[in-house]
Amino acid sequence: MGCGHKDDKASLASSQRASFSHQPHQSGSAPASKEVWKKGGRMFSILLAVHLALLACTLVSSGAFEKIAVHDYDVFFLLTVMMLIVIVWIIFYLVGTSRCPGAIPCKDSHAGPVWLRGGLVLFAIFSLVMDVFKIGYYSSFYSCLSAIKIIYPIVQAIFVVVQTYFLWVSAKDCVHVHLNVTRCGLMLTLTTNLAVWMSAVTDESVHKAHSKLKKNVTEEIFRWLLKAGMRSGSAEECNCNSQICQVFKNGYFWLYPFNIEYSLFASAMVYVMWKNVGRFIDHHSHHIHRLKFRLFRRTFFVGIVLGLIVLVSGLGVLILYEVQVNSSTESSKKSQALTMYYIFNIVCLGLMSLVCIGGSVIYRFDKRDMDRHKNPTRTLDVALLMGAALGQYAISYYSIVAIVASTPRDAISALNLTYALLMIAQHTFQNIFIIEGLHRQPPKDDHKYDPHQKGLYGLTFVNVNAVSLRVPDGGSTLAPNPAPGAEANHPSDLVRSLTAPKKMNWRRKFLREISIFLLLSNIILWIVPAFGARPQFDNDTELNFYGDSMWPAIVDICLPFGIFYRMHAVASLLEVYIVS
User: Fold this and answer.
1) Are residues 396 and 258 in the same domain?
2) What is the pTM of this model?
3) Which residues, 6 or more positions from 333, have their beta carbon under 8 angstroms from its beta carbon?
4) Do residues 166 and 304 both lie within one domain?
5) What digits encode the pLDDT tens for the residues 176-222?
6) Which class for 219: exposed (0-12), middle (13-18), buried (19 or more C-beta within 10 A)?
7) CA dihedral (43, 46, 52, 53) positive or negative
8) 545 falls in which pLDDT band (50, 70, 90)?
9) Which pick of 17, 49, 74, 500 has the fewest CB atoms within 10 Å?
10) Which keywords are on file for this protein (predicted)?
């Protein structure tokens, strides 16, 4: 396939516009007029993604049930084929498409920021460790397993390495050759990541559900999990009795949350790349802001200290909860663990809600302009924040209905009700704070002044209070007659301009404190449910009200979105912190 020779007439039009883009910018030309969107190619790639996603969702959900004649190795086979196709396309993109003349005339500076790519690499490392554990676990009894169960983690490890490198070097690309192939390849990559995510969530949910229901019959659980993958022989041939086998088995289940987050992070970055295919960047309105991450400068350390206190306290709560709930059969220990969990979350969510309200109030007095330029990355961030919050909203509302309608009501029910209400409030206030922060322009340099006021700013001995007292509100008596076509500089405006930087400094410091506190708090609120503490399965109120089948299904469907919300909020708050 030639470089740009097999595209349709729209590709030729895009190349012509690219040549025109080097001309001086003219006022009145909107940024949208410089972008070429190929509706047909986009629609075809969307249809391809929808059909593949539905097929993968059908197989993954069917393979989770024992009585349905769809085995887990059928799911692994489909995912392996999809990952191999994506690997081939990524190699073609890196070797062929990206090296064509004029393939990438511009880059989106907002796409793939360094902290997002750094998080992707971190999750990729843990995903590779998980694949190593999987390979070691399944290799312990390869004689009675389907070969695809060993091939799948090997292919997944290669897929993670290739995709991580691809997103690190190409996340900002605005491709202008091989448009249809690139769009379909990116949508296939996005669908593959979502399919891997669905498979990991389902596998983790099945494992946790059976470990809760059959704590003392681990042999039966093991046979149930391996039943679909056996080629021959009886169940006794596949016992995992060695210590190293148990380490591999428990290890890769503990690393599932990192693999789940990796798939979602990669999906978000691939979607932004798909939106940028064929896009032209207006450099006059698309300002590039360099990363200035100063963690220990221009801060009071209040947000960091409070955030670290919440983080350490949350880790302690997680450890105690796991010990008392999973290692003890006494009901009193379980009640103490639930009480401790709810009290910690009520305090944490209450503080976060108050802080978010304070941050929104500070934004009301912020004089920075709103950033109204087109930004696919920011649009996706807002959509993910609003969409992922729906999962926790659903769980909270189901809990509220169950608690209010159930009798009798005890102290744990009251704590659970307060926890559910605060969870709704905190998500709402935090979304408002983050979205406002993402739409703010980065602060300008405080030392850049109007050339007309150069002489006035040179008076270092100016007494601001005296100037403000001697100058009337209108400033007309001391203001000289402005030249024709020039703007009048009133002394009252001078006073405001002299005092404004100091006020902006205080506002920005408070916003940075709020952002870092929310960031650390969201990290612990991601760790606690992601690594085991899930009171939804241990509180009897919802289980008795909705039943043993409906309530676990609601939690299994909605909780992954709530966990993803926390990690995505961390990335968004980091951006708000840097921009503040």
Assistant:
1) no
2) 0.73
3) 324, 325
4) no
5) 888 888 999 999 999 999 999 988 888 877 776 666 655 544 444 44
6) middle
7) negative
8) confident
9) 500
10) Cell membrane, Hydrogen ion transport, Ion channel, Ion transport, Membrane, Transmembrane, Transmembrane helix, Transport
